[in-house]
Amino acid sequence: MPERIVCTVVTKSYLAYARTLAETLTEHNPEAKLYVLLADRVEDYFQPETEPFELIYLEDLPEQDAIAQMSFYYTPLEFCCALRGLLHEYILEHTTAESWLFIDCDILICDSLEPIFQELSETSLIFSPHCSRPVPLEQADHEINFLVHGINNGGFMGLRRTEQTRQFIQWWKDRLIHYCFLDCAIGDPRGLAADQLWLNLAVLYFSDFKFLKHPGTNIGHWNFYEKTFERDMQGNVLVNGQPLLFLHFSGWDIDRPHFVSKNTSLYPEEITSPWAELADIYRDKLLKNSYEKTRQFPYTFSKFNDGTPITQAVRRGYYDELKQGIAISAPFENSEYFQAKRYTLDSTHFLREELYGVYQQLVELQQQNHQTHLTLQQTQLSLQQTQSSLEQTVDEFTQFRQQADAEIARSHQTISEMENSIFWKARNVWWKIKQRLGQPEVKLLEQKKE
């Protein structure tokens, strides 16, 4: 059988998704191999050699100067999308696969992908359209989203080793390096939608392509309204009468697994079809693959080297300066430069981000103030305890002093009483006699008495 390759891109916080993709890919396609490009740094958070996939490092790619700049001016999502062209170039140059598939990490493989590879053997490229039939007029906002984000979904693509594919990869890679911003998410009038809008032009520039029309593929919130889920006599899930090959859980919430996606209002109710059962399976697999742990893994390129967070405004500012030829080198090492620039951009989204940053600083200051107040209270309590201890010690010392004075007074009284007694007076008389007579005479008298 020909070599079967699937590839994807993740940051390390999405490691559980990559593991789940690898697990379900192997379960239904044991001959396939998954390549995962890490748009991040490992930083000892996991052991690549133990993962169920072949890891591609950023350093394995060409265009290293461009990648260094991209890691600063793109957000994590934009960076992952922007690297897709470079990933396909890597597969083209470093494997002998006749064809391969790109599949987003948040996908559950449910059956063999061989029907897609068979279809790919007859064309250079396969794109996955967001939908294949219209919605009612009152739901036209759903179609407007396709006009904004592109007619094709970037979460799936099929490529075969042909000259046209090589040309497509070069063209797409160049565009994504420089123009893969998610403008529509921040209100930028330029209107880019990461990598997807470029695919609108791809179907005009590169004629040897097909649309993925199998009803059981790349099912997400964009085309869910077109799908009918059922089980056959053997219990297999069918979609519109065809085998379910893979589901795309884009915008899906692991804590609300029976709701299709937070990215659309078309499906406000819980789903009760076999899709919900598969959503439960997907959730269980993610949790088994350390979702709760890996989702906390930090993104290497989210901060300057000194730990200062990089805002989206700073990222865009740096990109604009690159275009003007005035950008500084080593941006991650120069947080003070960017903080001093105070970038102002005409976007309510940026304003919201800046306000959120100020809010976070305020929360941190409040937390610090609360901690300082607690420390002060503890210090005051400690001082009070120390003062109380000192007062107790003084009281004990005073009591001891009084007892000592009383004991001394009693001793003086005892001595005075002894001095005034007849015995003491007789002793004093005898002592004086001894002094007057001298010691020898006294001894003589004492001997005569004997």
TrEMBL record:
<dbReference type="GO" id="GO:0016740">
    <property type="term" value="F:transferase activity"/>
</dbReference>
<keyword id="KW-0808">Transferase</keyword>
<protein>
    <submittedName>
        <fullName>Group 1 glycosyl transferase</fullName>
    </submittedName>
</protein>
<dbReference type="InterPro" id="IPR029044">
    <property type="entry name" value="Nucleotide-diphossugar_trans"/>
</dbReference>
